[in-house]
Amino acid sequence: MKTQLSESGIRYKKGDLITTCNPVTSELTDSELLADELNFDIDNFNRQVVNENFNRVVLEEIAADINLEGAGKTLIFAVDDKHADLIVQIHFKNGRFPNVVVNVDLLTTGVDVPAIDTLVFMRRVKSRILFEQMLGRATRPCPDIGKTHFRIFDAVRHVVNQIVAQLRQIRRFC
């Protein structure tokens, strides 16, 4: 999934005024003018910098492409509780979608829900093992809903980076 922000990151120029969030109170305040430029790559999205518009665009694209009334389940991996709350607030707050789950760390391993047919990565994971376990949430067969495959929405280019890292490991041993 490509967005302008995922391709270009977020770039602030010297002298820009940015809004900051107090992590304790969640209060938003305007900071002073930046003394230097400040750049955020997609690795930092939803961790160091939260951009509600990025999340909104991604969620609208996903919601347009999944069957919210169908039997399949969608599992969205969020960065932290605040990010999960933002995701729910943006798109799933007023709906009755028991087939969409926003998850921080609870459902990454050891959960067997065969009806999960869509994974959404809104966060990056450094551990290859955890990443593979997260993928495993959707790999179980589910004949009850006619599941033949699963889909991945990758808003933070996580899947591609994991595959490239694995290919580098393989190349080292060749």
Q: What report would you give on this structure?
A:
The protein is an alpha/beta fold and 174 residues long. It has helices spanning 4-8, 52-65, 81-92, 128-136, 158-173, and strands at 10-12, 17-21, 28-33, 38-40, 73-77, 100-103, 116-121, 151-154. A four-stranded parallel sheet has the order 6-5-7-8. Helix 2 (52-65) crosses helix 3. The longest helix has 16 residues, at 158-173. The protein is globular and about 60 Å long. The mean pLDDT is 76.
Shape-level CATH architecture of the largest domain = 3-Layer(aba) Sandwich
Spatial extent as radius of gyration = 18 Å
SSE order: HEEEEHEHEEHEH
Strand order of the largest sheet: 6-5-7-8
CATH homologous superfamily designation of the largest domain: P-loop containing nucleotide triphosphate hydrolases
Regarding quaternary structure, how should these chains be classified? single chain
**CATH topology label of the largest domain:** Rossmann fold
